[in-house]
UniProtKB/TrEMBL annotation:
The lineage of its organism: Bacteria, Bacillati, Actinomycetota, Actinomycetes, Streptosporangiales. Residues 17-117 form the STAS domain. InterPro entries: Anti-sigma_ant, STAS_dom, STAS_dom_sf. It comes from Actinoallomurus oryzae. This is Anti-sigma factor antagonist. Belongs to the anti-sigma-factor antagonist family. PROSITE patterns: STAS.
């Protein structure tokens, strides 16, 4: 049986000194390894503040949460701060019941995380 999994995309841009990484699609076992590696590359490049925009994440399972923990650990190792923005209610609930809401600053919207943001996404990190 063939299952057409929605791929996850990662778009990055910089706003007022913040590196914003917008994830869209599903965070599951088939997408998280690639996303984790691409986010790690951004952290390795010396970003000091990264906001991960989750507003376009349609699904998240345990592997998605594991990816966020791995990103947090990598960020800590590089002296980078990481915040989450715009998680949909089901993702916010997962963050809350797993205690990960205590590991990250979480903003309801990207606008709250990065005041003065623009709406354009640059597929430079894709």
């Amino acid at each position: 049986m063939y299952h057409d999994t929605i791929r996850a995309d990662l778009f990055g841009h910089s706003i007022r000194g913040h590196t914003v990484l917008a994830i869209s699609g599903e965070l599951d076992i088939s997408t998280t390894a690639g996303l984790r590696d691409r986010i790690a590359a951004v952290l390795e490049d010396g970003a000091k503040l990264v906001v991960i925009d989750l507003s376009r994440v349609s699904f998240c399972d345990a592997s998605g949460l594991r990816m966020l923990v791995a990103v947090r650990r990598k960020a800590d190792a590089y002296g980078c701060a990481v915040a989450l923005a715009g998680p949909r209610p089901h993702v916010r609930k997962l963050l809350r019941i797993t205690g990960l809401d205590q590991a990250f600053p979480i903003y309801s919207t990207l606008g709250q995380a990065v005041p003065g943001r623009v709406n354009a996404y640059d597929p430079a990190v894709a």
